[in-house]
Specification:
The protein is an alpha+beta fold and 175 residues long. It has a single domain, classed as 3-layer Sandwich (Rieske Iron-sulfur Protein). The protein contains two helices and nine strands.
Length: 175
């Protein structure tokens, strides 16, 4: 196998292409912030979902997470906002009703598309530390807000959803 020679120009072109892709992704997410995924309604019973438990559903061929957060986890969301890329979710794809610190309709129930906004990998829940993408180390808090330190350009996507009753979530449709 012939070794690949990397010169300074090639390295700079590669770095600039990566920066361009990240910038375009961020621009696209900001431009399409109102394009909240919806359709194909799916009803989910949350009665037996305890605090700290992550339920993963397949909706529109995507993993969708439903996480029941404890009151301590919800309160802790304020502690690290200076480290987040978009703490106020101004450039996030989410329903307007979820534009709050906990990015949810109910503080204890978090719903998100479980795909990293960098390259679409599936992050893993790391307890109270949030979600970490195993591919490129993007890190999200328990509200799906991305930390500045990783390559992901935007917060996790929040699909359209509503609660038909106290413990009955309907994905894919707003109330």
């Amino acid at each position: 196998m012939t070794p690949v020679r990397v010169n300074r120009r090639g390295l700079l072109l590669g770095a600039s292409a990566g920066t361009t892709v990240a910038g375009l992704t961020y621009w696209w997410q900001a431009k399409h912030a109102n394009d909240v995924p919806q359709g194909s309604p799916l009803a989910v019973d949350l009665q037996d979902l305890p605090a700290g438990k992550l339920l993963t559903l397949n909706w529109q061929d995507k993993p969708v997470w439903v996480l029941r957060r404890s009151s301590d986890e919800v309160a802790a969301l304020a502690a690290h906002e200076a480290l987040l890329l978009d703490a106020d979710s101004q450039h996030s794809v989410q329903p307007q009703a979820c534009r709050n610190r906990h990015r949810s309709l109910k503080p204890d129930i978090f719903v998100a598309v479980g795909l990293c906004t960098h390259l679409g990998c599936t992050p893993q829940l790391r307890g109270a530390d949030g979600f970490t993408c195993p591919c490129h180390a993007s890190h999200y808090d328990l509200a799906g807000r991305v930390f500045k330190a990783g390559p992901a350009p935007a917060n996790l996507v929040i699909p359209a959803h509503h609660f038909a009753s106290e413990n009955r979530l309907v994905l894919g449709a707003s109330a």
